[in-house]
Specification:
Elements (H helix, E strand, L loop, with lengths): L2 H11 L14 E12 L8 E15 L2 E12 L7 E13 L6 E14 L13 E16 L2 E11 L9 E12 L143 H8 L5 E2 L9 H16 L5 E5 L7 H21 L7 E5 L12 H9 L5 E6 L1
Parallel strand pairs: 10-11
Antiparallel strand pairs: 1-2, 1-8, 2-3, 3-4, 4-5, 5-6, 6-7, 7-8, 9-12, 10-12
C-alpha cells in the first residue's frame, strides 16, 4: 500500500459523532487495525509495507495513564527480491493528553519484533529473527459512535540488536472500542457515577434528569414537573409569599407561613380561607365571626356577667362601681336647699348640681332617683305637691344640661321625712328649712 491509498482511506474514518474516550468511566479498550511499517537502514530499499491485523488490549489506570499489550502481523521487503514475515508483541504504556472527545496521546513500550524469512526455525520468536525492541510515539483517538473510536498512531521502533532485525517506523490505523463501566440508560454517564442509572439524565447532575429545567435535578426537586426556586426545593410560588404552591392553602393569594400561605384580612388570627367573617375580627370558636354582645360593650355575652348592661372588660362586662358618685351622694353637702314654699334653684344649688352632672358623665351607665322633701309647715297635701315640684325642678335642670331622661326618676315625700325636731322653733326651722328649706336628695338607683 502506498501513501496515496492511505490518504483516501483516512477521511472516511474521520466522519462520526463524539463519544467518551478511554477513561475511568470506560477503562478497557480493545483495538483492531492495520499496520504500515517503513524499514530504516543503509541496506533498505523498499518503502512502506502493509500488514494486518494489529491488535491491542489496554486498561486505564488513572490521571490519563493506561497500560496494555499489542500484537500484530505483516510483511516487510527490505530489498525488492526479499520478502519477510513481520510480527511484533509489546507491552505499552500510554498517556492521554486530555479526556475530551478527541484524545491525543503519547505512548512508549518494550517488546519483540520479528523479521522471518520463511525458513523453519525453532521457537515462536527464534533469536536469530527476533530482536528486543524499544519504541515511542504519538497517536489520537477520534470518536465515531457509541464508545467506538478511530485510532491513528505512529511510532519509532528500535530493533538493531540482531543482524536480521531492522529499526523501523510503524503506523497503525484502526478502530478501538471502550468498555467496562457500562451506561444502562445511555446518557453518557457511566453507571458507576450515575446517581440515576436507569433514567437518562445530564452530566452536570451526575446522570439525573431535570424534567422542568429549573436547574435542580429531579432527585432534589420536590416539584420535578414544575419549575421553581432552589430556596423552595424546586417548587413554584405563584403568589410570591415565600410559601411553595405545594404547601400553600391559598396559592394565588399572598399570605404568611403562619397561615399556610393564606391572608388574614381582619387580623384575628384565623386565615381567610376558613374565616366565615374574613373582613371582621372574630373568635375561632365562632368560625372567625364576632361573638354575640347584646349590650355592645365589647365583652361577648358568653363572658359577660351583665349581658344586658354595658360595662367594661375589667369588670367582666358589668359597669364599674361609681365610687365618686356614691361618695357625692353620701355627703350632706350634695343637698339642694329651697326657701319656704319655693321650688326655685339658686346659683349655689346649680353649682352643686353641676358637680353631679360631671359625675353622671363619668359614669354613663348610672341612673338616679331625685327625692323631693318639704317641711311640716302647711297642709300635708300642700307639702306633698311642693316636694314633687322641688324634685321636678332638679330634674328639669339636669335635662337641660344633657342628662338623659331615662337615667332619672323623681319622687316626692312631702313632710313624711323630717330631719329636725319640729316641736321647737329652731328644730322646725332646721326640719322644715323655713329659711333654707328641705333639700332635694340624690341617690343612685
Amino acid at each position: 500500500m502506498n501513501f496515496k491509498k492511505l490518504f483516501l482511506i483516512i477521511p472516511i474514518f474521520f466522519v462520526g459523532v463524539f463519544i467518551n474516550a478511554q477513561t475511568s468511566e470506560n477503562p478497557w479498550a480493545i483495538a483492531v487495525g492495520a499496520d504500515l511499517i517503513n524499514l530504516q537502514g543503509d541496506n533498505v530499499e523498499s518503502g512502506l509495507n502493509f500488514g494486518a491485523p494489529a491488535l491491542s488490549l489496554s486498561r486505564y489506570i488513572s490521571s490519563g495513564l493506561s497500560v496494555g499489550i499489542q500484537y500484530g502481523l505483516g510483511s516487510a521487503s527490505p530489498q525488492d527480491n526479499v520478502d519477510l514475515d513481520y510480527s511484533f508483541l509489546d507491552g505499552v504504556v500510554k498517556f492521554n493528553l486530555s479526556e475530551e472527545n478527541i484524545v491525543p496521546y503519547l505512548f512508549a513500550g518494550y517488546g519483540l519484533s520479528r523479521f522471518a524469512d520463511g525458513d523453519e526455525k525453532e521457537g515462536a520468536f527464534p533469536s536469530g529473527e527476533s530482536g528486543r525492541t524499544t519504541f515511542g510515539g504519538i497517536g489520537i483517538n477520534i470518536p465515531i459512535g457509541n464508545q467506538l473510536n478511530i485510532n491513528v498512531s505512529t511510532s519509532y521502533r528500535g530493533t538493531s540488536e540482531t543482524p536480521d532485525s531492522y529499526n523501523h517506523l510503524q503506523h497503525i490505523i484502526g478502530l478501538s472500542y471502550n468498555f467496562g463501566a457500562g451506561d444502562a440508560d445511555g446518557d453518557g454517564v457511566s453507571d458507576k457515577k450515575d446517581e440515576c442509572p436507569d433514567i437518562p439524565g445530564l452530566k452536570e447532575f451526575n446522570g439525573c434528569p431535570d424534567t422542568d429545567g429549573d436547574g435542580i435535578p429531579d432527585t432534589k426537586d420536590s416539584c420535578p414537573e414544575k419549575a421553581g426556586s432552589e430556596e423552595l426545593q424546586g417548587c413554584p410560588d405563584s403568589d410570591g409569599d415565600g410559601v411553595a404552591d405545594i404547601d400553600d392553602a391559598c396559592p394565588n393569594q399572598a399570605g404568611s407561613a403562619e397561615m399556610n400561605g393564606c391572608p388574614d384580612s381582619d387580623g384575628d388570627g384565623i386565615a381567610d380561607n376558613i374565616d366565615k367573617c374574613p373582613e371582621v375580627a372574630g373568635d375561632e370558636a365562632n368560625g372567625g365571626c364576632p361573638l354575640a354582645d347584646a349590650d355592645g360593650d365589647g365583652v361577648p355575652d358568653k363572658d359577660d356577667s351583665c349581658p344586658d348592661v354595658a360595662g367594661t372588660s375589667e369588670n367582666n362586662g358589668c359597669p364599674d362601681e361609681p365610687t365618686d358618685l356614691l361618695s357625692f351622694i353620701s355627703n350632706s353637702d350634695n343637698r339642694i336647699l329651697f326657701k319656704a314654699s319655693s321650688s326655685k334653684l339658686d346659683n349655689g344649688d346649680k353649682e352643686t348640681l353641676d358637680k353631679l352632672i360631671a359625675l353622671l358623665g363619668q359614669y354613663p351607665t348610672a341612673s338616679i332617683i331625685i327625692e323631693g322633701h318639704a317641711s311640716s309647715d302647711g297642709s300635708e297635701s300642700y307639702n306633698q305637691k311642693l316636694s314633687e315640684k322641688r324634685a321636678a325642678s332638679v330634674k328639669a335642670y339636669l335635662l337641660g344640661k344633657g342628662i338623659d331622661n331615662n337615667r332619672m326618676s323623681t319622687i316626692g315625700y312631702g313632710e313624711s321625712r323630717p330631719i329636725g325636731n319640729n316641736k321647737t322653733s329652731k328644730g322646725r326651722a332646721d326640719s322644715r328649712r323655713v329659711n333654707i328649706n328641705r333639700s332635694a336628695n340624690v341617690k343612685v338607683n
